[in-house]
Amino acid sequence: MTPHVLCIGGEDHALRIPFLLALQERGFRVSAAATAEPEPFASAGIEYHPFHFDRFVAPLADLASRTALMKLIATVRPEIVQSFDTKPNLLVPLAARGIPGVRVVCTINGLAYLYSSRSPKALFFRPIWRAIQRLAAASTTAMVFQNVDDQGFFERNKLMGASPGQLIPGSGVDVGRFDRAVAEGPAPEELRQKLGLAGQEVVVTVSRITRQKGIPTLLEAAAAIHRLRPNVRFLLVGPRDSEGPLAVTQAEIDRHKPYVISLGPRSDVPSLLNMADLFVLPTEYREGIPRALLEAAVASRPIVTTRMPGCRDVVRDGWNGYLVAPHSPEQLTGRILELLQDRELAASMGARAAALVRSEFNLEVIVERYASLYRQLASGLRQAPVKTALNGADRNLHQDDPVRLVEE
Description:
Elements: E1 4-8, H1 17-25, E2 29-34, H2 39-43, E3 47-50, H3 59-76, E4 80-84, H4 86-96, E5 103-108, H5 112-116, H6 120-137, E6 142-145, H7 148-156, E7 165-167, H8 175-184, H9 188-194, E8 201-206, H10 215-228, E9 232-237, H11 250-254, E10 260-264, H12 269-275, E11 278-281, H13 291-298, E12 303-306, H14 311-314, E13 321-324, H15 329-341, H16 343-360, H17 363-383
Parallel strand pairs: 1-2, 1-4, 2-3, 4-5, 5-6, 6-7, 8-9, 8-11, 9-10, 11-12, 12-13
Helix pairs in contact: 1-17, 3-4, 4-6, 9-12, 10-15, 13-16
């Protein structure tokens, strides 16, 4: 029997549809649950269950979300529940703990606001998050880490419980799908003309438009570059209105007209990357493996990003891009100008980035590693039936020997 995998995430969960379809091709039954719009899942023929959780600090909303997840998992009854994103990684194990026959896999794709922000609020909530994470870890069957920094952090702070850890770098990029989107989309000059960028140098950033993603730092760098190279245009691609108190205001962006253009969320990211001269991700956030970096690399774009966890797993400084210090508009300015001025260097870095990602971060490679993990966990389930307490309150879901995983 190939297990049923219920994959749970947030508002960008539709980006994992290629991952789910690749699992289906390997014989898995898959379903999804998220705060995302249902239409993309319906179009892909994937069973979808909408639910709501608050991405920010909201204890009462979190309790309601946990209850909703508990009902969902009890109804769907998958063998494997896979969660992504910070809140689901806390809520899903706590929701699944009273349901027999379910194995929980949590993928740690970055350490989010609480460990990226220096604000008093983040500092206050860190010990609370650690306590909840340890509680969730006790009901987690396996943890997957997208980068070595996060894995080391969890090990040092004893946040893993008894669950084994495995390193799987990122969610993978569907290279074939990306290439088809580029081939079927408009030619670079056609798209530039449509966006009013004919004859301009174009720097693209794909990100949530928030402070923790380094957008204010990028705006400072853009202003400095505009003074020296007025032909450069910076495109910001990604959501802003949904980002709450962390969002960069529209007024801040408007101060940098006409050389900074905010496009909002777009469905044609491959085409936008294909027309760009350079890709920049100035994040100050503890990333997992940023999908935007992977897609920029597949498009053979030279990259400038920060020395943050996850980013340095993709970019090797001076080889396939540049790493700069976070919060440093001066360093960001210098490296962007260098790559705009030296097109031969930029092209060689872009080619190396594409070769690296196409071989090591290809969706097929990543999905096969997840599939192997799920099969091991399902095999353990069949070999060691789960015992439940008679009163139904606390169920001993993980008393059998944990599955031993080999970490590369």
